[in-house]
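Our consortium's second objective concerns turning raw sequence data into structural hypotheses that experimental partners can test. To show how far this objective has progressed, the report includes one record in full. It was chosen at random from the queue rather than selected for favorable results. The single chain below, 134 residues long, was entered without modification.
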Amino acid sequence: MDSERPDLGAMVMRLGRRLIAMEEPILERHGLTMWAYVVLTALREGPTRTQAALAQSIGADKTRLIPILDDLQKRGLIERDPDPADRRVRLLGLTTEGQRKQRAIQSEIRTAEDDLLEDAADREAFVRALRDLT
């Protein structure tokens, strides 16, 4: 056991701050906040049935999410369509422009991640370990 190394939580927190600092300029170039990008990425898989379901899936307060959704809709990146099964409910989904924007940002982030983890074998092992732990 390596008692001299920092705890995993401490290392993950430092890494998280470093990754956020790496992503922020990319998001700024695209005119999005981190939460807006999180929303676009969550909706990439397909429509979400309610704002509350989206908030829960990304760990956001649903009341704080509404202005983000309003802005994304105003910018033409997401749609809020009535659910044919229940007209009181809105289906949230990406527009074609929202899909394009999400892919462009993710591509730039992946390039920055590749620069951070230059060795492909180390990168694959790290990603696998993160998936296993989360």
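The partners drew two points from this record. The first strand starts at residue 78 and ends at 83. The mean pLDDT is 91. Both points have been shared with the crystallography group to help prioritize constructs.
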